[in-house]
Amino acid sequence: AYDPHCLSCPIDLEGGGGKVFVNADRIGEHCQLRVELLDEQFRPLPGYSGEACIPLQQPGLRQHIFWRERDSLEHFGHPVRVRVNWEGVRTEDARLFAVYIA
């Protein structure tokens, strides 16, 4: 199965907190992005999985990523990886320019 995604190297959040944002274009009815947080062994972090992520459906700069029960990051005590998944019938349309934690 074709599973378009990108994955960050481990990121040390140094104390936790912050929010995840993306800069993306060509997002909409036929293509969405989901963001999930993983541990260093590529396991989804509870509450931050792809299933828990509310899909990003609007293009723009500094689009805030939300999960069902969270809108910001907790203190994890270990580095995390960020994974962005392309979903929909036209995944080739979406353009991801940046993912950042602020």
Mean pLDDT: 94
Low-confidence stretches are none
Radius of gyration: 13 Å
Write down how many β-strands occur, each being a DSSP E stretch of 2 or more residues: 6
Give the overall form: globular
Helix content: under 10%
Give the termini separation. Answer: 34 Å
Structure in a nutshell:
0% of the residues lie in helices and 34% in strands.
Task: Walk me through this protein's architecture.
This protein is an all-beta fold. The protein is built from no helices and six strands. It has a three-stranded antiparallel β-sheet, with no helix packed on it. A three-stranded antiparallel β-sheet has the order 4-2-6, with no helix packed on it.
Q: Keyphrases for this structure?
A:
globular; 3-stranded antiparallel beta sheet; 102 residues; mainly beta
